[in-house]
Amino acid sequence: MKFFLALFWVLYFACGAVQAEDKPTEIHDRIAPVPQTSKRIALTLDACSGKFDDDLIEYLIRNQIPATLFATKKWLLVNPKGVAIIKVHLDLFDVEDHGENHIPAVIGAGKRVYGIPGEPDIIHLRREVTEGASAITELIGVPPHWYRGATAEYDAQAVTEIEKLGYGIAGFSVNADAGATLKRLAIEERLKHVKDGDVIIAHMNKPASDSAEGLSVGLTHLLKQGFHFVRLDQVSLKVVP
Ligand SMILES: [Zn+2]
């Protein structure tokens, strides 16, 4: 009896360890420091699916604020007006890979992140990453080098595979709009805490949200404080806890 009880606990903890190892994690990054630079921050905007937030992009163009845009193939195909505007401003915008169909980078039947199903196997993950990249090369004209998966959560196997395909995984350190769900004042408040080296994430696919309004006020404030915006194709990132 004692033997079976011991065996039960050994198996219980072993399964728990496997599960913990396999649990998707949100990757956090800051801009890797370079001597004699200060007050560098990066704005990243996700275009998951949905529409084009022209108020937000027009604000960035008016104020000459560079940004890195993570677009899915799905978004690029249904937003030709947005694509056209981005394409004439490639001096400001670096377009990077957010996948083909906005499927979270977790592998295995039944795996989900925030209720969204992940990939059934590694072949599907590869397709999500490479088809997203091809769409950017084709529609924007510049091949991407960074990848950000839907939901920004990854399991260990997906991380290894994405890096093997040649893409760096772009995390973030300040979540400015919580998936375009935050109200204007909450976005402004989050941006007040931005520090040198931060990578900000927000969304450019929900024009009905408060993202454009909140970001306009918050980013103008950061410009006044002397922060300098860089794009991810100009810097390296450093993983932080
Ligand atoms: Zn997304």
Write the SSE topology:
Layout: H1 2-22, E1 25-26, E2 28-31, E3 40-47, H2 54-62, E4 67-71, H3 73-78, H4 80-87, E5 93-97, E6 104-105, E7 112-113, E8 116-117, H5 122-139, E9 146-147, E10 150-154, H6 156-164, E11 168-169, E12 174-175, H7 184-192, E13 199-203, H8 211-224, E14 228-230, E15 237-240
The protein binds zinc ion.
CATH class: Alpha Beta
Q: Report the count of strand segments.
A: 15
Output the helix-strand order. HEEEHEHHEEEEHEEHEEHEHEE
The CATH superfamily is known as Glycoside hydrolase/deacetylase
Mean pLDDT across all amino acids: 93
Q: What spatial form do the alpha-carbon principal axes imply? A: globular
- Classify the beta-strand content into a percent band: 15-25%
What compounds sit in this structure? Answer: zinc ion
Per DSSP, the total helix count is: 8
Provide the low-confidence segments as ranges.
10-20
What is the helix content?
25-40%
The profile of the biggest β sheet is: 6 strands, parallel
- Classification by helices and strands: alpha/beta
The rounded Rg comes to 19 Å
- As for the number of domains, it is 1
CATH architectural group: Alpha-Beta Barrel
